[in-house]
Amino acid sequence: MSCVHIIGAGLAGLAAAIELSGTDRRICLYEATSQAGGRCRSYHDPVLNREIDNGNHLILKANHHTRDYIQRIGSTAQFHTPQTHYPFIDIKYGYQWELKRPFYLPRLPLIDYIHLLRIGLMGGCVGNYASPYDNLHRRFLAPLCTSILNTPPEQASAMLFARTLRQIIAEKGGAEPLLPLHTLHASLIAPALKRLLDQGCDIYYQQSLKHITLTDNRATELHFSRNVIPLGADDIVILAIPAHGIEKLLPAIPVPQTYHAIVNGHFITDHNQPNGSFIGAVGGALDWVFFKDGLISTTTSAANALADIDQDITATMLWHDVCRITGVRKPLPPYRIVTEKRATYAATPENLKRRPTTQTDYNNVLLAGDYVRNGLPATIEGAIKSGMKAACTVYAI
Ligand SMILES: Cc1cc2nc3c(=O)[nH]c(=O)nc-3n(C[C@H](O)[C@H](O)[C@H](O)COP(=O)(O)OP(=O)(O)OC[C@H]3O[C@@H](n4cnc5c(N)ncnc54)[C@H](O)[C@@H]3O)c2cc1C
Question: Contact 337/372 with Cβ under 8 angstroms?
Answer without folding.
Answer: no
